[in-house]
Amino acid sequence: MRVVAAMSGGVDSAVAAARMLDAGHEVVGVHLALSRSAATLRESARGCCTLEDAGDARRVADMLGIPFYVWDLADRFQRDVMDDFVAEYAAGRTPNPCLRCNEKIKFSALLDKALALGFDAVATGHYAQIVDGPAGRELHRAVDAAKDQSYVLGVLTAEQLAHAFFPLGDTTKPMVREEAAARGFYVAKKPDSYDICFIPDGDTRGWLTKRLGEQPGEILDADGSVVGHHEGAYGFTIGQRKGLGLDRSAMDGQARYVVGIDRAANTVTIGTADLLGVDEIVGMRALWCGPVPTGPSRLGAQVRAHGEEVPATVEADGARVRVVLDRRIRGVAPGQSVVLYDGTRVVGSATIETAGRARHTEPAS
Protein backbone atom coordinates (compact mmCIF):
# COMPACT_ATOMS: atom_id res chain seq x y z
CA MET A 1 0.00 0.00 0.00
CA ARG A 2 0.97 3.64 -0.49
CA VAL A 3 0.74 5.18 2.96
CA VAL A 4 1.05 8.72 4.31
CA ALA A 5 2.69 8.61 7.74
CA ALA A 6 1.64 11.65 9.77
CA MET A 7 4.88 12.69 11.49
CA SER A 8 4.48 15.21 14.30
CA GLY A 9 8.14 15.19 15.25
CA GLY A 10 7.54 13.07 18.32
CA VAL A 11 8.66 9.57 19.20
CA ASP A 12 5.31 7.86 18.62
CA SER A 13 4.82 8.99 15.03
CA ALA A 14 8.48 8.25 14.28
CA VAL A 15 8.17 4.61 15.34
CA ALA A 16 4.79 4.30 13.62
CA ALA A 17 6.34 5.42 10.32
CA ALA A 18 9.23 3.00 10.77
CA ARG A 19 6.90 0.09 11.44
CA MET A 20 4.84 0.85 8.33
CA LEU A 21 8.04 0.79 6.29
CA ASP A 22 9.13 -2.48 7.90
CA ALA A 23 5.73 -3.96 6.97
CA GLY A 24 6.55 -3.43 3.32
CA HIS A 25 4.42 -0.38 2.57
CA GLU A 26 5.48 2.52 0.36
CA VAL A 27 5.66 5.28 2.97
CA VAL A 28 5.79 9.04 2.60
CA GLY A 29 6.25 11.19 5.71
CA VAL A 30 4.05 14.26 6.10
CA HIS A 31 4.30 16.89 8.82
CA LEU A 32 1.21 19.03 9.33
CA ALA A 33 1.91 22.75 9.70
CA LEU A 34 -1.01 23.80 11.90
CA SER A 35 0.20 27.16 13.19
CA ARG A 36 0.12 30.38 11.16
CA SER A 37 3.18 31.57 13.08
CA ALA A 38 5.04 28.48 14.26
CA ALA A 39 7.57 29.14 17.03
CA THR A 40 11.17 28.19 16.46
CA LEU A 41 11.34 26.22 19.71
CA ARG A 42 8.79 24.45 21.85
CA GLU A 43 7.66 26.70 24.70
CA SER A 44 6.91 23.73 26.96
CA ALA A 45 6.04 20.05 26.92
CA ARG A 46 2.48 21.03 26.04
CA GLY A 47 3.22 22.62 22.69
CA CYS A 48 3.67 21.01 19.32
CA CYS A 49 3.75 21.87 15.61
CA THR A 50 6.81 24.12 15.97
CA LEU A 51 9.66 24.49 13.49
CA GLU A 52 11.70 22.32 15.85
CA ASP A 53 9.09 19.57 15.58
CA ALA A 54 9.11 19.77 11.79
CA GLY A 55 12.90 19.46 11.84
CA ASP A 56 12.74 16.43 14.14
CA ALA A 57 10.24 14.75 11.81
CA ARG A 58 12.44 15.46 8.78
CA ARG A 59 15.50 13.94 10.48
CA VAL A 60 13.59 10.72 11.18
CA ALA A 61 12.33 10.58 7.59
CA ASP A 62 15.90 11.03 6.33
CA MET A 63 17.07 8.16 8.55
CA LEU A 64 14.27 5.96 7.18
CA GLY A 65 15.06 7.01 3.62
CA ILE A 66 11.48 8.06 2.84
CA PRO A 67 10.22 11.20 1.09
CA PHE A 68 9.12 13.96 3.45
CA TYR A 69 6.75 16.88 2.96
CA VAL A 70 5.18 19.62 5.04
CA TRP A 71 1.49 20.18 4.33
CA ASP A 72 0.11 23.56 5.38
CA LEU A 73 -3.25 23.06 7.08
CA ALA A 74 -3.00 26.12 9.34
CA ASP A 75 -6.09 27.85 7.97
CA ARG A 76 -8.15 24.68 8.24
CA PHE A 77 -6.91 24.11 11.81
CA GLN A 78 -7.72 27.70 12.74
CA ARG A 79 -11.25 27.41 11.41
CA ASP A 80 -12.20 23.88 12.41
CA VAL A 81 -10.37 23.54 15.74
CA MET A 82 -9.33 26.87 17.25
CA ASP A 83 -12.32 28.97 16.17
CA ASP A 84 -14.63 26.11 17.13
CA PHE A 85 -12.93 25.94 20.53
CA VAL A 86 -13.56 29.64 21.16
CA ALA A 87 -17.16 29.46 19.92
CA GLU A 88 -17.96 26.48 22.14
CA TYR A 89 -16.60 28.14 25.29
CA ALA A 90 -18.39 31.37 24.36
CA ALA A 91 -21.63 29.35 24.29
CA GLY A 92 -20.99 27.90 27.74
CA ARG A 93 -19.85 24.48 26.54
CA THR A 94 -16.60 22.58 27.11
CA PRO A 95 -15.15 21.22 23.85
CA ASN A 96 -12.41 18.64 23.34
CA PRO A 97 -10.04 20.02 20.68
CA CYS A 98 -8.21 16.70 20.28
CA LEU A 99 -11.38 14.95 19.09
CA ARG A 100 -12.13 17.86 16.78
CA CYS A 101 -8.58 17.77 15.37
CA ASN A 102 -8.81 14.03 14.69
CA GLU A 103 -12.24 14.45 13.10
CA LYS A 104 -11.59 17.55 11.01
CA ILE A 105 -7.83 17.58 10.38
CA LYS A 106 -6.07 14.22 10.63
CA PHE A 107 -8.90 12.04 9.34
CA SER A 108 -10.71 14.49 7.12
CA ALA A 109 -8.38 17.11 5.66
CA LEU A 110 -5.26 14.91 5.77
CA LEU A 111 -6.93 11.67 4.73
CA ASP A 112 -8.97 13.33 1.99
CA LYS A 113 -5.85 14.92 0.53
CA ALA A 114 -3.90 11.66 0.77
CA LEU A 115 -6.62 9.71 -1.04
CA ALA A 116 -6.92 12.42 -3.69
CA LEU A 117 -3.18 12.10 -4.36
CA GLY A 118 -3.47 8.36 -4.88
CA PHE A 119 -2.45 7.08 -1.44
CA ASP A 120 -4.31 4.19 0.15
CA ALA A 121 -4.18 5.08 3.83
CA VAL A 122 -2.88 7.29 6.63
CA ALA A 123 -0.83 5.99 9.56
CA THR A 124 -0.49 7.85 12.87
CA GLY A 125 1.19 7.28 16.22
CA HIS A 126 -2.08 7.00 18.15
CA TYR A 127 -2.33 4.26 20.76
CA ALA A 128 -5.31 2.26 19.51
CA GLN A 129 -5.89 -0.95 17.57
CA ILE A 130 -7.73 -1.77 14.37
CA VAL A 131 -9.14 -5.29 14.17
CA ASP A 132 -10.83 -6.99 11.24
CA GLY A 133 -14.34 -7.86 12.39
CA PRO A 134 -17.40 -9.47 10.80
CA ALA A 135 -18.75 -6.09 9.64
CA GLY A 136 -15.41 -4.61 8.61
CA ARG A 137 -12.52 -2.93 10.37
CA GLU A 138 -13.12 -2.17 14.05
CA LEU A 139 -11.49 0.36 16.36
CA HIS A 140 -10.36 -1.09 19.70
CA ARG A 141 -8.58 0.09 22.83
CA ALA A 142 -4.79 -0.06 22.91
CA VAL A 143 -2.89 -2.69 24.87
CA ASP A 144 -1.31 0.05 26.99
CA ALA A 145 -4.28 1.25 29.07
CA ALA A 146 -2.29 4.20 30.41
CA LYS A 147 -1.72 5.52 26.88
CA ASP A 148 -4.95 4.36 25.24
CA GLN A 149 -6.20 7.02 22.81
CA SER A 150 -9.28 5.27 21.49
CA TYR A 151 -11.46 7.91 23.18
CA VAL A 152 -10.14 10.74 21.00
CA LEU A 153 -10.53 8.53 17.91
CA GLY A 154 -14.20 7.82 18.64
CA VAL A 155 -15.16 10.40 16.01
CA LEU A 156 -13.90 8.22 13.14
CA THR A 157 -16.34 6.63 10.72
CA ALA A 158 -16.16 3.14 9.27
CA GLU A 159 -15.03 4.63 5.95
CA GLN A 160 -12.16 6.48 7.63
CA LEU A 161 -11.12 3.39 9.60
CA ALA A 162 -10.88 1.52 6.30
CA HIS A 163 -8.01 3.85 5.38
CA ALA A 164 -6.26 4.13 8.75
CA PHE A 165 -3.36 2.39 10.49
CA PHE A 166 -2.34 2.66 14.16
CA PRO A 167 0.90 0.64 14.35
CA LEU A 168 1.50 1.26 18.07
CA GLY A 169 -1.74 -0.17 19.43
CA ASP A 170 -0.14 -3.43 20.55
CA THR A 171 2.82 -1.78 22.29
CA THR A 172 3.45 0.06 25.55
CA LYS A 173 5.00 3.51 25.63
CA PRO A 174 8.27 2.34 27.28
CA MET A 175 8.63 -0.25 24.52
CA VAL A 176 8.15 2.44 21.88
CA ARG A 177 10.89 4.57 23.42
CA GLU A 178 13.21 1.57 23.60
CA GLU A 179 12.53 0.81 19.94
CA ALA A 180 13.18 4.42 18.96
CA ALA A 181 16.49 4.38 20.80
CA ALA A 182 17.48 1.09 19.15
CA ARG A 183 16.73 2.64 15.74
CA GLY A 184 18.92 5.61 16.64
CA PHE A 185 16.14 8.16 16.57
CA TYR A 186 17.08 11.46 18.19
CA VAL A 187 13.48 11.81 19.43
CA ALA A 188 13.64 8.65 21.58
CA LYS A 189 13.73 10.72 24.79
CA LYS A 190 11.72 13.69 23.55
CA PRO A 191 8.95 14.58 26.04
CA ASP A 192 5.33 14.04 25.09
CA SER A 193 3.13 16.99 24.19
CA TYR A 194 -0.09 17.53 26.11
CA ASP A 195 -3.47 19.16 25.65
CA ILE A 196 -4.02 21.79 24.49
CA CYS A 197 -1.36 22.12 21.78
CA PHE A 198 -2.27 25.68 20.80
CA ILE A 199 -2.24 26.86 24.42
CA PRO A 200 1.34 25.86 25.35
CA ASP A 201 1.35 27.58 28.75
CA GLY A 202 -1.83 25.76 29.82
CA ASP A 203 -3.68 28.99 30.74
CA THR A 204 -6.96 28.32 28.93
CA ARG A 205 -8.84 31.11 30.71
CA GLY A 206 -6.17 33.68 29.82
CA TRP A 207 -6.09 32.49 26.21
CA LEU A 208 -9.86 32.82 25.92
CA THR A 209 -9.88 36.23 27.58
CA LYS A 210 -7.55 37.60 24.90
CA ARG A 211 -10.08 36.54 22.26
CA LEU A 212 -13.40 37.14 24.01
CA GLY A 213 -12.50 40.03 26.30
CA GLU A 214 -13.58 40.46 29.90
CA GLN A 215 -17.30 39.92 30.47
CA PRO A 216 -17.96 40.55 34.19
CA GLY A 217 -20.81 38.67 35.80
CA GLU A 218 -22.03 37.09 39.01
CA ILE A 219 -21.22 33.81 40.72
CA LEU A 220 -24.31 32.36 42.39
CA ASP A 221 -24.72 29.74 45.07
CA ALA A 222 -27.26 26.97 44.50
CA ASP A 223 -29.96 29.03 46.27
CA GLY A 224 -29.45 31.92 43.84
CA SER A 225 -27.59 34.20 46.23
CA VAL A 226 -24.62 36.15 44.87
CA VAL A 227 -21.38 34.88 46.41
CA GLY A 228 -18.81 36.35 44.03
CA HIS A 229 -18.02 37.80 40.64
CA HIS A 230 -16.19 36.62 37.55
CA GLU A 231 -14.59 38.19 34.47
CA GLY A 232 -16.18 35.83 31.97
CA ALA A 233 -18.45 32.80 32.31
CA TYR A 234 -16.53 31.23 29.40
CA GLY A 235 -13.61 30.71 31.78
CA PHE A 236 -15.45 28.03 33.76
CA THR A 237 -16.52 24.45 33.18
CA ILE A 238 -18.89 22.07 34.94
CA GLY A 239 -17.15 20.29 37.81
CA GLN A 240 -14.45 22.93 38.22
CA ARG A 241 -13.28 23.43 41.79
CA LYS A 242 -10.09 25.48 41.57
CA GLY A 243 -9.87 29.07 40.46
CA LEU A 244 -13.30 30.14 41.69
CA GLY A 245 -11.87 32.96 43.79
CA LEU A 246 -14.27 32.34 46.67
CA ASP A 247 -13.87 32.44 50.44
CA ARG A 248 -15.42 29.17 51.58
CA SER A 249 -15.32 30.27 55.18
CA ALA A 250 -17.86 32.95 54.29
CA MET A 251 -20.27 30.16 53.36
CA ASP A 252 -20.26 26.85 55.23
CA GLY A 253 -16.68 25.77 54.65
CA GLN A 254 -17.62 23.03 52.21
CA ALA A 255 -15.90 22.76 48.85
CA ARG A 256 -17.83 24.31 45.98
CA TYR A 257 -17.87 23.25 42.35
CA VAL A 258 -19.25 24.77 39.19
CA VAL A 259 -22.66 23.11 38.68
CA GLY A 260 -24.17 25.42 36.06
CA ILE A 261 -23.25 28.03 33.45
CA ASP A 262 -25.87 30.39 32.03
CA ARG A 263 -24.31 32.26 29.13
CA ALA A 264 -27.48 34.25 28.43
CA ALA A 265 -27.46 35.66 31.97
CA ASN A 266 -23.64 35.51 32.15
CA THR A 267 -23.80 33.75 35.52
CA VAL A 268 -21.89 30.83 37.00
CA THR A 269 -23.65 28.68 39.61
CA ILE A 270 -21.68 26.78 42.21
CA GLY A 271 -22.75 24.04 44.59
CA THR A 272 -21.60 21.14 46.72
CA ALA A 273 -20.32 17.90 45.20
CA ASP A 274 -23.64 16.09 45.58
CA LEU A 275 -25.18 18.38 42.94
CA LEU A 276 -22.73 17.26 40.29
CA GLY A 277 -23.88 13.67 39.87
CA VAL A 278 -25.72 12.82 36.63
CA ASP A 279 -26.91 9.53 35.17
CA GLU A 280 -28.49 10.58 31.88
CA ILE A 281 -26.66 12.03 28.89
CA VAL A 282 -28.24 13.22 25.66
CA GLY A 283 -25.78 13.49 22.81
CA MET A 284 -25.97 15.12 19.40
CA ARG A 285 -23.87 14.76 16.22
CA ALA A 286 -23.52 11.02 16.77
CA LEU A 287 -20.70 9.43 14.78
CA TRP A 288 -20.48 5.65 14.43
CA CYS A 289 -17.31 3.61 13.91
CA GLY A 290 -19.38 0.77 12.45
CA PRO A 291 -22.99 -0.45 12.54
CA VAL A 292 -25.41 1.82 14.42
CA PRO A 293 -26.84 0.19 17.57
CA THR A 294 -30.47 -0.81 17.18
CA GLY A 295 -32.89 -0.66 20.08
CA PRO A 296 -31.72 -0.33 23.68
CA SER A 297 -28.11 -1.57 23.82
CA ARG A 298 -25.92 -2.37 26.79
CA LEU A 299 -22.61 -0.54 26.26
CA GLY A 300 -19.91 1.23 28.22
CA ALA A 301 -19.80 5.04 28.28
CA GLN A 302 -16.73 7.22 28.80
CA VAL A 303 -16.80 11.03 29.02
CA ARG A 304 -13.09 11.86 29.41
CA ALA A 305 -9.97 10.75 27.56
CA HIS A 306 -8.69 8.81 30.57
CA GLY A 307 -11.91 8.62 32.51
CA GLU A 308 -13.63 5.52 33.83
CA GLU A 309 -15.95 3.55 31.57
CA VAL A 310 -19.41 3.20 33.11
CA PRO A 311 -22.01 0.56 32.10
CA ALA A 312 -25.03 2.13 30.41
CA THR A 313 -28.15 1.58 28.33
CA VAL A 314 -27.90 3.37 25.00
CA GLU A 315 -30.59 4.26 22.47
CA ALA A 316 -29.69 5.85 19.13
CA ASP A 317 -32.11 7.94 17.09
CA GLY A 318 -30.49 9.30 13.96
CA ALA A 319 -27.81 11.82 14.92
CA ARG A 320 -28.93 11.80 18.57
CA VAL A 321 -28.25 9.31 21.31
CA ARG A 322 -29.56 8.83 24.87
CA VAL A 323 -27.25 7.26 27.41
CA VAL A 324 -28.61 6.17 30.81
CA LEU A 325 -25.76 5.27 33.16
CA ASP A 326 -25.95 2.53 35.77
CA ARG A 327 -24.60 4.99 38.34
CA ARG A 328 -24.07 8.68 38.62
CA ILE A 329 -20.84 10.33 37.60
CA ARG A 330 -19.65 13.88 38.24
CA GLY A 331 -18.44 16.79 36.18
CA VAL A 332 -20.18 16.03 32.88
CA ALA A 333 -20.32 19.18 30.78
CA PRO A 334 -22.18 20.05 27.57
CA GLY A 335 -19.72 20.14 24.69
CA GLN A 336 -17.69 17.19 25.95
CA SER A 337 -17.92 13.90 24.09
CA VAL A 338 -19.36 10.62 25.27
CA VAL A 339 -17.63 7.67 23.63
CA LEU A 340 -19.36 4.29 23.65
CA TYR A 341 -17.66 0.89 23.94
CA ASP A 342 -18.63 -2.74 23.50
CA GLY A 343 -15.85 -4.45 25.38
CA THR A 344 -12.67 -3.00 23.90
CA ARG A 345 -14.41 -2.03 20.64
CA VAL A 346 -15.31 1.62 20.06
CA VAL A 347 -18.92 1.78 18.88
CA GLY A 348 -19.13 5.53 18.31
CA SER A 349 -19.38 8.91 19.95
CA ALA A 350 -21.62 11.95 20.38
CA THR A 351 -21.21 15.52 21.56
CA ILE A 352 -22.95 15.98 24.93
CA GLU A 353 -25.93 18.31 24.63
CA THR A 354 -27.40 17.89 28.10
CA ALA A 355 -26.67 15.86 31.24
CA GLY A 356 -29.03 15.30 34.16
CA ARG A 357 -30.68 12.76 36.39
CA ALA A 358 -33.02 10.18 34.90
CA ARG A 359 -33.82 8.31 38.07
CA HIS A 360 -32.40 7.27 41.41
CA THR A 361 -29.07 5.50 41.00
CA GLU A 362 -25.99 4.85 43.06
CA PRO A 363 -24.26 8.02 44.33
CA ALA A 364 -21.72 9.61 42.01
CA SER A 365 -18.15 8.42 42.19
UniProtKB/TrEMBL annotation:
Residues 280-352 form the tRNA-specific 2-thiouridylase MnmA-like C-terminal domain. It is found in: Cytoplasm. It catalyses: S-sulfanyl-L-cysteinyl-[protein] + uridine(34) in tRNA + AH2 + ATP = 2-thiouridine(34) in tRNA + L-cysteinyl-[protein] + A + AMP + diphosphate + H(+). InterPro entries: MnmA-like (IPR004506), MnmA-like_C (IPR046885), MnmA-like_central (IPR046884), MnmA-like_central_sf (IPR023382), Rossmann-like_a/b/a_fold (IPR014729). One of its GO terms (biological process) is tRNA wobble position uridine thiolation. One of its GO terms (molecular function) is tRNA binding. Belongs to the MnmA/TRMU family. This is tRNA-specific 2-thiouridylase MnmA.
